[in-house]
Amino acid sequence: MQAGFWVRLGAAILDGIIIGIPVSLFTAIMFSDYYVKFMNNLLMGLYGLLVPVMWAGYTIGKKICNIRIQKLDGTEPTIGTMLLRNVVAGVIYGVTFGIGLIVSAFMVGLREDKRAVHDFIAGTEVVHD
């Protein structure tokens, strides 16, 4: 069964609290003001890109919420899948000045298959365990 908007948002908030806050503190301590934002974005980007590949579609927040990313055929995401899902979709969201992100939120909330723009780009879905 596909995961809807609220559980996906909850998982993202948990990732932000459990991973994002410690990473932000680490970068603030370890790097000069010039590099803090860059290093924080780099580390969080790597987390979102690599952890689902290494951990069968889960991040820590998704694991807590019992949801995971999978390809449409039910297999685990690959690095290529996650690059499409995160990087290519991120560029599209940026080029559209966030409108694509808002459209994605409505897609997850209103579509029967609960797939967002980034899910269509990468051929993925987020499902309950």
Uncertain segments are none
Report the strand count: 2
* Beta-strand content estimate: 5-15%
Count of helical stretches: 6
| Quaternary status | single chain
Mean pLDDT: 97
Radius of gyration: 15 Å
Q: What is the global morphology?
A: globular
Judged by helices, strands and strand pairing, the structural class is mainly alpha
The major pleated sheet works out as: 2 strands, antiparallel
How far apart, in Å, are the first and last alpha carbons? 8 Å
Helical proportion, percent range: 55-70%
Output the helix-strand order. HHHEHHHE
For the largest sheet, list the strands in their spatial order: 1-2
Describe the structure.
The protein is mainly alpha-helical. It contains six helices and two strands. The chain has helices spanning 5-30, 33-54, 60-64, 79-95, 99-110, 117-122; strands spanning 67-71, 124-128. The chain has a two-stranded antiparallel sheet. Helix 1 packs across helix 2 (33-54) and helix 2 (33-54) crosses helix 4. It is globular. It starts with a helix and ends with a strand.
Care to give the gist of this entry?
This protein has 129 residues and is mainly alpha-helical.
Would you spell out the secondary-structure blueprint of this structure?
Elements: H1 5-30, H2 33-54, H3 60-64, E1 67-71, H4 79-95, H5 99-110, H6 117-122, E2 124-128
Antiparallel strand pairs: 1-2
Helix pairs in contact: 1-2, 2-4
Overview features:
single chain; 129 residues; mainly alpha; two-stranded antiparallel ribbon
